[in-house]
Specification:
GO cellular component, one term (chain A): secretory granule membrane
Number of domains of chain A: 2
Keywords (chain A): Carboxypeptidase, Cytoplasmic vesicle, Glycoprotein, Hydrolase, Membrane, Metal-binding, Metalloprotease, Protease, Secreted, Signal, Zinc
Largest sheet of chain A: 8 strands, mixed
Shape of chain B: flat
Strand order of the largest sheet of chain A: 3-4-6-5-7-10-8-9
Family (chain A): Belongs to the peptidase M14 family.
Distance between the termini of chain A: 109 Å
Subcellular location (chain A): Cytoplasmic vesicle, Secretory vesicle membrane; Secreted
Structural class of chain B: mainly alpha
Largest sheet of chain B: none
Oligomer: heterodimer
Shape of chain A: globular
CATH topology of the largest domain in chain A: Aminopeptidase
Largest interface: A-B, 61 and 104 residues
Low-confidence stretches of chain B: 20-41, 61-73, 97-140, 213-271, 353-368, 378-391
Number of strands of chain B: 0
InterPro entries (chain A): CarboxyPept-like_regulatory, CARBOXYPEPT_ZN_1, CARBOXYPEPT_ZN_2, M14_CPE_CPD, Peptidase_M14, Peptidase_M14_domain
């Protein structure tokens, strides 16, 4: 009986297996039609990355797709709206999206600040998709990056400008159309000019970091600031960014601070206190881009002066003076180190070239991300273990201090060498430690600061002890 | 060509085997003995119900142990012990509510059930152990004697997992099937889903049942009555596989023919062919599958055939059918193979292309493709997308966007499954993910990141999974 039944079962099984295969083959017929319809939109698709220009709706769709594919490590948010009301979208990739984990450094990429410099915008969309894909494939480098960093990607800071630029007919796009925002403001000249203040302070004494306290109030009251600029400033104030890059087009170089010349002349090498660090960071991008780091590369245009370019990098002021730029604003108002990367001689190249731009820049983008895990990092706490926010970390020999974030955590990017780091905070006794810094990874150094009142108490106790001892001795 | 023939073979087998009901049904004998049993003794209604339930559990218990396999006899013993205990507990509970004097009787029932053979014709000198194993094939029939459907198999697997409280059962089954190449990864995943679903139902049902006086037999048959046709495509693959997997072990143990023990390890032993020489057509078919690549297919075919032969041999041995009937059946099988092979080969040219993408298409046929087809219909005709913002772009966009979202969601689910499997977690993360996505989608709509329509689409896709 049972055997009998078993036979029936087998029969059923085999029969239905056959049905399954038939079904499968039938379903296969549905494929070609659908593929044809998708043809136009997925011109050069590879692993979910479509190498074509994304207008605002497509940009949004692309980011949403990344989020849908990797919802456990990604989150979309907006830092504000452009003048014409488009969301300034950011996609965040991290193992705990939406949260700052104490000790986890924050990174940002911003593209398309000039609306007609389009390559950066596209590269960042590709990057987001790439990181998600690789994460799911088990790529260890990517997994480690995402688990140990909070990566923020803003493909376009000037979506209005891009729409204007992209709407131009024909392949050749004008050098200027779409560059500024909808109000005609050049966003990369719109930031408060902190360079000038710093230069004054250098002469007459004064701080050179975290200038402009009460930043938010000043920003909100300033009528000259574009909504996009304001949004970014708030963003910088809210999140303790450590490293950043600002993607542009029109040339092929990695540019670092200061952008504005000290003397006010048109070209002058204007180093910042972290010049050595910045050179290393900039090379961290350019050296992985074959075209950018090619020493024999001819300049983008015949009469271009690229004499300041070294290894695909340049000091901002040495190249040409830029006041009110976002890069220097980062360095002088916050802890964030930002460089400006020019990705293409052509600001808005033909769509077919996008794939090759991705190939050229993929490794640079990844390697630059990893630069965040360099130098020294750690926590500043009091003797009870409570974090001390806004404590100062100064490095002997480098006239630029950084501060600790809300959880007492800090990240000090440094090139390899021996340093003395000092942690200090109002009401606390400063502590200095010696650190030997390799190329990478970052060295962990924590500080436990004793508050002044605690020290006073200690001293009082010591004094009492001594007095007791003395009086006992004398009275004996 | 081998793959083709294999497919042909399977289909042929399928067709052939589905005509088995031409064969004399021995169920009548079984029912008769059951019947007789019940009439011979007057027992309280509750006991009879309990007994029926126990029988059912025995049948359910090892759904994959068909064809009287012996290898898992110790497993069965433990299982039955566990069942017996469970039975005991339930009965104790029940009896506490009822009159105490029934308790003793009920306990006896449990014990005596273990020894009772459902087919009295079985050799009474055999130990209770083996008889239990022989009982197992009965698990293929429901109480009312109708053959099980694919849905039932899932039910049984789920029940077994539940009762053993070990999902290793499922993993064992699935890995066997995968090794035999009878199911693909995605089919395995789908099966897992379905089993999980049923398991969940079981658990909640049990919880409910524990609170009230249940009517066990009827609630069980209730589940069996559900036959969802769309699921049949996957599970019977399991059935076939289960049978094959277990019968290998069967052959291993039951037959005292020399070389039996080596049979399992050798891929192409002469023994296989010895047995099969009585089936010239099948033999010819096997011979024609020569290449390295098709080694696995060949092995599967051989296993299938051997299983059939073993079934028949056992039926003959235990007198379920007469030897002549067995022989004639097998001869019929061979003849039908010849005929069907010939017919199928004529049609193969057209099917050739489609054969090679069954798995992928099938997987898509599951939920995402249905969903895509639904979406496509909703959004109207398709046109090439242009970048100048004309109205035609609008029609194309929603569809392209939906597809993109679908694709992304699918990748996420796949990754989730793979990720969870490695972490040995249950796949209930899917519902957590669903909730999370729904929540996030709403937040995104508020923030202006998604528009309402998109959020609806995404929620709908997730709810269809």
């Amino acid at each position: 009986m049972g055997v009998r039944g078993g036979c029936t079962l087998l029969a059923l099984g085999a029969a239905l297996t056959a049905c399954a295969w038939l079904l499968g083959s039938a379903a296969a017929d549905g494929e070609p039609g659908a593929a044809g319809m998708r043809r136009r939109r997925r011109l050069h698709q590879e692993d979910g990355i479509s190498f074509e220009y994304h207008r605002y709706p497509e940009l949004r769709e692309a980011l949403v797709s990344v989020w849908l594919q990797c919802p456990s490590v990604s989150r979309i948010y907006t830092v504000g709206r452009s003048f014409e009301g488009r969301e300034l979208l950011v996609i965040e990739l991290s193992d705990n999206p939406g949260e700052h984990e104490p000790g986890e450094p924050e990174f940002k990429y911003i593209g398309n600040m000039h609306g007609n410099e389009a390559v950066g915008r596209e590269l960042l969309i590709f990057l987001a998709q790439y990181l998600c894909n690789e994460y799911q494939k088990g790529n260890e480098t990517v997994i480690n990056l995402i688990h140990n960093t909070r990566i923020h990607i803003m493909p376009s800071l000037n979506p209005d400008g891009f729409e204007k630029a992209a709407s131009q007919p024909g392949e050749l796009k004008d050098w200027f159309v779409g560059r500024s925002n909808a109000q005609g403001i050049d966003l990369n000249r719109n930031f408060p000019d902190l360079d000038r203040i710093v230069y004054v302070n250098e002469r007459e004494g004064g701080p050179n970091n975290h200038l402009l306290k009460n930043m938010k109030k000043i920003v909100d009251q300033n009528t000259k600031l574009a909504p996009e600029t304001k949004a970014v400033i708030h963003w910088i104030m809210d999140i303790p960014f450590v490293l950043s890059a600002n993607l542009h087009g029109g040339d092929l170089v990695a540019n670092y601070p200061y952008d504005e010349t000290r003397s006010g002349s048109a070209h002058e090498y204007s180093p910042c206190p972290d010049d050595a660090t910045f050179q290393s960071l900039a090379r961290g991008y350019s050296s992985f881009n074959p075209a950018m780091s090619d020493p024999n590369r001819p300049p983008c245009r015949k009469n271009d002066d690229d004499s300041s370019f070294v290894d695909g990098t340049t000091n901002g002021g040495a190249w040409y003076s830029v006041p009110g730029g976002m890069q220097d604003f980062n360095y002088l108002s916050s802890n964030c180190f930002e460089i400006t990367v020019e990705l293409s001689c052509d600001k808005f190249p033909p769509e077919e070239t996008l794939k090759s731009y991705w190939e050229d820049n993929k490794n640079s983008l990844m390697n630059y991300l990893e630069q965040i895990h360099r130098g020294v990092k750690g926590f500043v706490r009091d003797l009870q273990g409570k974090p001390i926010a806004n404590a100062t970390i100064s490095v002997e020999g480098i006239d630029h201090d950084i501060t600790t974030a809300k959880d007492g955590d800090y990240w000090r990017l440094l090139v390899p060498g021996n340093y003395r780091l000092t942690a200090s905070a109002p009401g606390y006794l400063a502590i200095t430690k010696k650190v030997a810094v390799p190329y990478s990874p970052a060295v962990g150094v924590d500080f436990e600061l004793e508050s002044l009142s605690e020290r006073k108490e200690e001293e009082k106790e010591e004094l009492m002890e001594w007095w007791k001892m003395m009086s006992e001795t004398l009275n004996f | 060509m081998g793959l083709l023939q294999m497919g042909t073979m399977i289909q042929v087998l399928a067709l052939v085997l589905s005509q088995i009901h031409a064969f004399p049904k021995p169920e009548g004998i079984q029912d008769k003995s059951l019947h007789n049993r019940e009439l011979s003794v007057e027992r309280p209604l509750k006991e009879q119900i309990a007994e029926a339930e126990t029988d059912q559990i025995l049948k359910i218990a090892p759904p994959e142990n068909k064809a009287g396999e012996r290898n898992y006899s110790s497993d069965n013993l433990n299982l039955l012990k566990a069942i017996g205990e469970k039975e005991k507990k339930e009965k104790e509970r029940k009896s506490l509510q009822n009159s105490p004097h029934n308790k003793k009787l009920i306990m006896e029932e449990v014990d005596s059930t273990k020894n009772r053979r459902l087919v009295d014709d079985y050799d009474s000198t055999k130990s209770g152990l083996e008889n239990k194993s022989q009982d197992d094939p009965d698990g293929l029939h429901q109480l009312d004697g109708t053959p099980l459907t694919a849905e039932d198999i899932v039910q049984k697997i789920a029940t077994r997992i539940y009762e053993e409280n070990d999902r290793g059962v499922f993993d064992k089954i699935v890995s066997k099937l995968l090794n035999l190449g009878l199911i693909t990864e995605s089919q395995a995943n789908t099966l897992e889903d379905e089993v999980a679903e049923v398991l969940q139902k079981l658990i909640s049902k049990e919880a409910r049942n524990n609170e009230e006086e249940p009517d066990y037999p009827s609630s069980r048959t209730e589940n069996y009555a559900e036959n969802l046709p769309e699921k049949t495509t996957i599970k019977p693959a399991i059935q076939g596989g289960l049978t094959n997997g277990e019968s290998d072990d069967t052959v291993h143990k039951t037959w005292t023919i020399p070389n039996t023990l080596e049979r399992r390890n050798k891929l192409y032993t002469e023994d296989n062919f010895d047995d099969l020489q009585y089936f010239p057509n099948f033999y010819a078919l096997l011979k024609s599958i020569d290449s390295e690549k098709e080694a696995k297919e060949k092995e599967t075919l051989i296993t299938i055939m051997k299983t059939l032969i073993d079934f028949v041999k056992m039926m003959v041995k235990y007198g379920t059918i007469s030897p002549e009937e067995g022989v004639s059946y097998l001869e019929n099988l061979d003849a039908t193979i010849a005929l069907q092979t010939k017919n199928k080969l004529d049609k193969n040219a057209a099917d050739n292309k489609n054969r090679f993408i069954p798995d992928k298409s099938h997987e898509e046929a599951d939920s995402t493709k249905e969903e895509a087809a639904k979406m496509e219909k909703e959004y109207g005709t398709q046109k090439d997308s242009t970048k100048d913002g004309s109205n035609t772009e609008k029609n194309e966009e929603p569809k392209g966007k939906t597809e993109a979202y679908l694709e992304a969601i699918r990748k996420n689910i796949e990754w989730l499954k793979k990720h969870d499997k490695q972490g040995n977690k249950e796949d209930y993360d899917l519902s957590k993910m669903k909730d999370f996505i729904n929540q996030q989608a709403d937040i995104y709509v508020e923030k202006g990141i998604l528009d309402e329509q998109e959020a609806e689409t995404i929620k709908r896709i997730y709810s269809s999974l």
